[in-house]
Each structure stands twice: as structure tokens, then as C-alpha cells.
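Slide 14.
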Amino acid sequence: MKVAVILPAAGLGTRMGLNSAEKAGTSRKQFMLLDGSPILLHTIRKFVACPPIGEIVVALRHEDMEWFDLLLRQEALPTPVRLVEGGDSRQQSVQNALAVLDADTDLVVVHDAVRPFIDRSTIGQVIQEAAQCGAAIVGIVPVDTVKQVRKNKVHTTLPRERLTLAQTPQVFRYALLRQAFEKAREDGFIATDESSLVERLEEVEVSVVLGSDRNIKITKPSDMDLARLFLSEQAAQAKAV
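Slide 15: predicted structure.
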């Protein structure tokens, strides 16, 4: 089974509250340092450690490709990592990366570049589920009560047991994901995740693999404090083994 990972990492960090100068440099969220390494590199290391993964494709802004390529060479990773130029949206970045994958790819794993705490067992589970049914995502059940509102007034309370907070990785059969992106391009449809694109095809049911609240997406400054805590705990567990 040939499995490829796509990491969209061309974002400008708008939710991180960075100014224009910071957005042009390495202070963007995917390049902020955890224990001396960019968040993106921590994420790449998680997938390199998974045997089913054959290659990783990272979509970056043009100005980031050269220096990050040098950083990857210093890592000497055992799994091939290719860099492609990303787009102005996540969807365009994933589509650009998808275009360079070999046609004999079986499964495509799409993961947020700023989720460095995904664990290997979850990666394996979601890949296995997608291999069986064609499409699978990682998600968690919300712990808070969720209200649907209209103009700041509560319209209804949604039952939590029927809700999932979608995370990544999201894994799909290669041909299915290509078809979903082509359909979205034809319709001018923009989604916030790949599952939404596949759902529109109504060809397969997307399975959900239970994730973890530790699989955080680093999007705001306060997330960095939690990330440092998780990283220190991760290091302590590794030493204890």
C-alpha cells in the first residue's frame, strides 16, 4: 500500500495575530520554535516515524522553500520529503501537493502542519480505516454544550453525542480525493477541510476515528504555552521508555 502525506504549510498566521513583518519571516505559526525546532518540523518527524508512510509533501510559500529545504537536509530524514509551492488558501495548497503525487498512490493523508502532537497509533488507525472504507478522519466529541444561534439568540441545543469536532489527519483514497478537488474546482466551492469536499461527492461515507484533545492545532499565542507543556511531557515519556 502506497501512502503519501500532505502538509499544507503556506498559511500567513492571521489568527496568531502576527504583523506584516512577522508574516514575511519565520515567526509565522508553522515556523515558531518548540525546543529549538519549527513546529512544522516536529509534525514531519511524527509522520516519518510511521512505517506505512512512503513520502511527505509539504506545501510552502515560495519564499520559505529554500531555507526549509536546507533545514530538512540537516535532518537527514529516512522518509522522502518533497516541497511544493502552496497557494493563498489551504485548499489550493493541498491541491498543488496532490498534483505532484504519483498516480499509483493508494492513500493520501492530509494533516495540519501545526498539529505536532498527533500520536503514531492514531495515524495508523485512521490509515487502516481509510484503507477499508475509502475515507476517514480523526475527530473528538465536544465536551461543551453546543448551541445553534441566530443573531445572538439561541435557536436550539445540539445533542453532543451526534457531533464531532473534526481534526486531522484526514485520509482518502487517492482517486477519490482527486475527484473531490476537481468537482470543487468546477463548482467554485471552497471548504475548510478535505472531508467536506469528499462528502459532496456522496460516494462514500466518511468514517471517524476517535482522536485526542492533545492533538491541538496551534493557532493563537496561548496555544504555544500548552504546546511547550505537551512537548516536555512527551520528552519525559520518551526518557522513561
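Speaker note: The chain has one domain: 3-240.
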